[in-house]
Fold this protein.
Amino acid sequence: MSNRPELLAPPEIFYDDSEARKYTSSSRIIDIQARLSERALELLALPVDGIPRLLLDIGCGSGLSGETLTENGHQWIGLDVSQSMLNIALEREVEGDLLLGDMGQGLALRPGIIDGAISISAVQWLCNADKSSHEPRLRLKAFFGSLYRCLARGARAVFQMYPENIAQRELILRSAMHAGFAGGVVIDYPHSAKSRKEYLVLTCGPPSLSTAVPRGKGEDGESCSEDENSEENQMVCISDRNRPKKKQKITRKGKGRDWIFKKKEQLRRKGNAVPPDTRYTGRKRKARF
Amino acid sequence: MRLFTHNMLSSNIKGVSNGFPLRIEVEQVLEKQVDFNPDFVKNLFPKLEWKALVDGARTLGYAELPEEADSSMLESEEFLRKVHHALLELHLEEGALTCPETGRKFPVTKGIPNMLLHEDEV
């Protein structure tokens, strides 16, 4: 059986009361979530001036990732589709404001106000069609479109995600690019099956120097238990919808008679057997040929 | 839900062109102490819809905010403290938010607004 929760049930049903409690009482999960959100916040690259920012936590669940934001002094708004998860968040008395909402329906926020967004292990849920009315492509479009609108220009959004396969990753990435984001995927520890983590780093606004995708951790076989300290990490993949397309030379005319004579001359000089130049060489053919 | 969230929220029902500000219906309001940070207020101030904030604060029973505000007032700490109180310390615990255009109600329970849309509203 698969161990991917997305395949078992829709999020608002999968994370029922008991699953939500299980999720939040596991110290292992808490630890992982804290580390993921720490890294996401790092990738968010907020200016270091000590000013608290207004951040968005998409798929905040029981507020584990939000706690990291609070610890770093930011104010945040959390959005989740599971009431049970939010109830646990209330019990844990998280600092941020909580909203019950479905990110696939688009975010109900005013344009240009959010300083940054993080999302831990949530976007891949959008690729599922749990109801007959769900169309993953449209839900992704609604989500990224509304996110793009509500972010301030130049703000970043970082999504830690577990895409099921390459097609899913492409679908997510493409939807983000269509919405206008620039950015790409950062992969931490790409050589390790267990510690490998994917982050989608998006910047709102046209591509510039500041939209360059940061590097992943542990790219050159660095052991995963040691955190940080890797200098020569490598960026794994970048895509950018504004990148100029490869230019194809299209000339209607073809190569021409002179070109053929030149080539034949070259081959003759090499000593190849070349047919003689005649009036038929490189002549125009009739259209029906 | 606090007022800074209310100031950000707008209804995104299909076909609604101006879903801001959502009207607040109050059943219960809570006050919680939050550490005062003038930088946050200053940073957030240009993005605020002031009128919506003043109206929202009135609805929650806090009428200390002036009708008009501009960035020169950010110098005064008293003003910053008032804004801070309105933004971060007033919680709408029970009640509802109403879309100004369609009148659709989003219930608020235990401080969490339910913004889930029905299938025909997406």
User: Anything to note?
Assistant: The CA atoms of residues 72 and 104 of chain A lie 28 Å apart. The longest helix of chain A spans residues 27-44.
